[in-house]
From TrEMBL:
Biased composition (Acidic residues): 945-959
Keyword Membrane included in the entry's annotation: yes
Cited Pfam families: Glyco_tranf_2_3
InterPro entries assigned to the protein according to its UniProt record, in alphabetical order: Glycosyltransf_2, Nucleotide-diphossugar_trans
Gene3D superfamilies in UniProt: Spore Coat Polysaccharide Biosynthesis Protein SpsA, Chain A
Region of interest (Disordered), residue spans: 938-959
Protein name as it appears in the record: Glycosyltransferase 2-like domain-containing protein
Membrane-crossing segments per the record: 265-286, 298-316, 374-393, 454-473, 485-514, 534-559, 571-590, 634-658, 665-687, 699-721, 728-748, 912-930
UniProtKB keywords: Membrane, Transmembrane, Transmembrane helix
Length: 959
């Protein structure tokens, strides 16, 4: 018999290793050595250098079947692999005695050092499974090979890519799963013919999901993808970090989201493609808000950039055409390989448990608010507030000092915010005070009666100050009772009492919020919630007390310098305040009066400057917290009172300075520097006169800066008490008692009738004017008030009268009268005296229908001016006397007047645009400031308690 012809021998698979490097000097030598150590060597090696500048490939000697390709820097991994594949030689077909060998591409990065048997294991796996055209190894950590970096990839039902295994300890628990949807590019073994058929990686996926997309297209072409658990390859990081020193959070989000959106459009049915495209940008906006709520502000720009890049960047049409060209099976073929929602939920739960464990393992709080006296000091402050301000209880509004009622509608409150028309005086167009935004928010809380919010703030000032001080003192002390002392000292500070009794609402708000601001800045490095909360508090404090701007900015700069390693969150703290103040700053600079930015908001009121000694003791007024009028009959005010007040302040000062001798001297020193900065600002405020009050000018209220000094002194004194040995309780008691005695008359101001605050119904002008204002909201009332020096103070009220939110420092700090202001002054002067002046043109142009002659002070010169003005106006036939009102004598002008302008269309559009900007900036900050935390998941057990494992040696945790 003739022997049968010999069967052709199967050829050995041919492997070309494509090694991509980009500044990989730290890993490249190790990877090359690992290739040399392979038990099954690759037949060819192509090294692709992507613009390396570290010299890692400068002296690379390659010969024989190895080659080197150089590409410019910045080229993606997929393009580098394609260049290497083109450079690699193609296997030749034999003479007929053997078939053409299989060709495979082995894709490696400079950090992918394979184990000695990695290539052999993968070739064995594909040899016994011919349908597998893409195989992937188990990627392990470069420094800890026992930890899995990545092992297989898949997608959710919504298309989001997900690693099947990531950052887990390798115990062989996943080795039984080999059939997967996709594998990582690092270490991928792919049949060369399939690579060419699929045209390699999608150019529109330069980094993230390029390998996953290739594997999905391979499966849709009828092939299989598998992982080989026996093959191990190292990896130093995800693909988006390849060749980069650092990848920001925003860039990482953009890369992943852009890849997901691109794949979504590529795989979408033709009928739904336009719907997906139209929803790209709207969905991105909604997701950006979600990132803000989830405290990931850096992801906002990445989310929006990804949507815009996919929507208008192109690449989808080519990707869809390429996928359709090679597709052989439907999506049902890979549906079983998608990850289930249950698995996604387990992944999220695991991540949440890790975060919860981190929160639970944080240091235990030093003091409990409920158990260590915090709640009691707040309640005591609330009782003190009720006793001190009992006349305000039940009152819908308050007036006096720097206070007026607010507008009666929320819409009017917000109309006075930002750039626009302001009706105060003769009316003007310009920016409002930043404090107007604070008032608008407060008034919106009690929308049914906006002025009630001011009463509530005054009543809650003392307990809220105690609450904030308790928490910030707890931050710097260890003894559980010390925060109670610190809270008490800060609550009874003369600055707060003086601000409340004189109606400086902005100073009251600043005093209340300063402890929270300090606490938020200290914690800002921990989370975006704290940082955003600090930015909001910074803006509110600055708007309420502009004189604190230097202190706030210095404190911010110091916090950046001290915590420079984590300064990325603190750096944005002043942004909301800058948006609030920028229009006003530009307006004041344009007027040549930049220092007017520091003027106090609210009703201008004359403030007498305290001495340097009074400032050092924390007295914002020269009346020594009410002791001066109480002791003046004794004749001891000039000599004894300063000494007595200094002695009363001495215990707190000694404790504060003594804290420098303890082991926490650095924190105490920082607190004392804060106090010194507050004192310097208060001293400067007493020498800054930018606000006009009648015919004179007044200083900036120094109490806000003294609140900063008080907080610094209290923090340092609390640390001093905390580090004292056995005498700490006695020292704390003496300091608190002495401080309480120093401000006792101030707290009794309401009882003694020395307070400027007066409860009111919210009506500024008489009922007659109010009735007229119902029909004509812009009706004008000229108010003429005699002065003690024989002059007249004149103002123009619109509608129901000036309100607190109407006030603007652009008017109170004006360096010169406007044309309409001069016209108003001329009109008032001639109305108050008999002359040949015809007031009708001015009355008509200014829209004035009423004249209110205020009773004025009881001085002889003022009474003479009052009587002369009453006679002159009363004898003018054009005016009808309405009669006496609670504010003075009212006259009605019987002639016709013009309707005043309320601003042009451009002004109104600018006002709306500015409100939108404020809404975006503060809305984003508010969303970030809302705290989010994982909910505690409590495990349930069916085991009887007695049979459960003993917990004797478990670590205790204070819940």
């Amino acid at each position: 018999m003739q022997p049968s012809p010999a069967q052709p021998r199967s050829a050995q698979p041919r492997v070309t290793a494509v090694l991509v490097t980009a500044n990989g000097g730290e890993h490249l030598d190790r990877t090359l050595d690992a290739l040399v150590a392979q038990t099954r060597h690759p037949d060819n090696l192509v090294v692709v250098d992507v613009g390396s500048t570290d010299g890692s490939t400068a002296e690379l000697a390659l010969g024989g079947s190895a080659g080197l390709v150089r590409l410019p820097a910045g080229r993606p991994f997929g393009e580098a692999v394609a260049a290497g594949e083109r450079e690699a030689p193609t296997a030749e077909v034999g003479d007929g005695s053997e078939t053409a060998p299989d060709e495979w591409l082995w894709l490696l990065g400079h950090d992918n050092a394979p184990a000695p048997t990695a290539l052999a294991e993968m070739l064995s796996a594909v040899e016994i499974a011919p349908s597998v055209v893409v195989a992937g190894p188990k990627l392990v950590d470069t420094d800890d090979p026992s930890r899995i970096r990545a092992f297989g990839e898949t997608t959710t039902r919504g298309g989001r890519s997900l690693a099947l295994v990531q950052d887990e300890l390798d115990q062989g628990q996943h080795d039984r799963h080999t059939d997967v949807m996709g594998v990582s590019a690092a270490g991928m073994l792919v049949r060369r013919s399939v690579w060419r058929e699929l045209r390699g990686f999608d150019p529109a996926l330069p980094d993230v999901d390029a390998a996953l997309d290739l594997c999905i297209r391979a499966r849709l072409a009828g092939h299989r993808v598998a992982v080989v658990p026996e093959a191990r390859v190292t990896s130093a990081g995800p693909i988006e970090e390849f060749g980069r020193k650092r990848v920001s959070e925003g860039r990482r989000v953009r890369l992943h989201r852009q890849a997901e959106l691109h794949r979504r459009l590529t795989y979408a049915p033709a009928g739904l493609l336009w719907l997906h495209w139209l929803l790209l940008v709207p969905t991105a906006v909604v997701r950006a808000l979600g990132h803000l709520v989830a405290k990931h502000p850096a992801a906002v720009t990445g989310e929006l950039a990804a949507a815009l890049a996919v929507a208008f960047g192109g690449g989808v049409r080519r990707a869809r055409a390429n996928a359709a060209r090679t597709r052989r099976v439907g999506w049902a073929a890979i549906e079983p390989l998608r990850v289930s929602w249950r698995r996604v939920h387990e992944h999220r739960t695991t991540s949440r448990d890790v975060e919860l464990a981190r929160v639970e393992d944080a240091p235990i709080a030093r003091a409990s608010f409920l158990g260590d006296g915090g709640v009691w000091v707040v309640l005591a402050a609330a009782v003190l507030s009720v006793v001190t301000l009992y006349p305000l209880l039940g009152s819908p509004a308050v007036t006096g000092g720097g206070l007026l009622p607010l507008s009666t509608s929320v819409g009017r409150l917000w109309q006075n915010v930002g750039y626009g028309w302001h009706s105060i005086g003769t009316g003007s167009t310009g920016p409002s005070d930043p404090f107007a935004a604070v008032l608008a928010v407060l008034g919106s809380i009690t929308a049914w009666s906006p002025s009630t919010s001011v009463v509530v703030v005054l009543l809650l000032a003392f307990p809220l100050s105690a609450l904030g001080a308790w928490f910030v003192v707890r931050k710097v002390t260890t003894r559980t009772w010390v925060p109670v002392v610190g809270a008490a000292l800060y609550t009874i500070a003369p600055t707060l009492v003086g601000a409340v009794t004189t109606g400086h609402l902005g100073a009251v708000i600043a005093h209340v919020l300063l402890p929270w601001l300090v606490l938020a800045v200290l914690e800002a490095h921990r989370s975006w919630a704290w940082a955003s909360g600090a930015s909001l508090l910074f803006a509110v404090v600055a708007a309420s007390a502009p004189s604190l701007l230097p202190v706030l900015l210095v404190g911010w700069v110091v916090s950046l310098a001290v915590g420079w390693r984590r300064a990325h969150r603190r750096v944005f703290i002043p942004v909301p305040a800058a948006v609030l103040f920028l229009p006003l700053v530009l307006a004041q600079v344009a007027r040549g009066n930049p220092l007017a930015v520091f003027a106090d908001p609210g009703v201008p009121s004359a403030t007498r400057a305290p001495s340097a000694l009074q400032l050092a003791i924390g007295q914002p007024l020269p009346d020594w917290s009410g002791w001066l009028p109480a002791t003046s009959p004794l004749g001891l005010a000039a000599t004894v009172l300063p000494v007595a007040m200094a002695v009363l302040a001495l215990p707190v000062v000694l404790l504060a300075v003594g804290a420098l001798l303890g082991h926490r001297w650095a924190v105490a020193g920082a607190a004392l520097l804060l106090a010194l900065l507050g004192y310097a600002t208060a001293f400067g405020a007493t020498h800054l006169t930018v606000t006009g009050v009648g015919s004179t000018s007044t200083i900036v209220w120094p109490g806000s800066a003294l609140s900063v000094m008080a907080l610094g002194i209290v923090l340092a004194a609390s640390i001093g008490i905390d580090v004292l040995p056995r005498t700490a309780p006695a020292a704390a008691l003496v300091a608190a008692v002495f401080a309480g005695v120093a401000v006792t008359p101030a707290f009794a101001a309401s009882t003694l009738g020395d307070t400027l605050l007066q409860p009111t119904t919210g009506r500024v002008l008489s009922a007659y004017v109010n009735a007229e204002a119902q029909a004509n909201p812009d009706v004008g009332t000229i108010v003429v008030e005699p002065q003690t020096d024989g002059s007249l103070a004149v103002s123009l009220e619109r509608g129901q009268g000036s309100t607190l939110d109407d006030q603007t420092t652009l008017d109170s700090t004006a360096l010169r009268l406007s044309r309409s202001g001069a016209q108003l002054a001329t009109l008032a002067g001639n109305l108050a005296s008999r002359s040949g002046y015809d007031p009708e043109p001015a009355l008509r142009e200014l829209g004035i229908s009423f004249v209110l002659l205020d009773d004025g002070p009881s001085a002889d010169a003022a009474q003479q001016v009052h009587d002369r003005a009453a006679g002159a106006i009363g004898q003018d036939a054009r005016f009808t006397s309405i009669g006496e009102t609670t504010s003075g004598r009212l006259f009605h002008y019987e002639g016709d007047v013009d309707r005043v302008s309320t601003g042009s269309a451009a002004t109104q559009a600018t006002h709306v645009l500015y409100l939108v900007v404020l809404g975006v900036v503060f809305g984003a900050a508010a969303l970030l400031a809302v705290p989010t935390a994982p909910r505690r998941r409590r495990a349930t057990s069916n085991v009887i308690e007695a049979e459960e494992p003993a917990t004797t040696f478990d670590e205790e945790r204070d819940e």
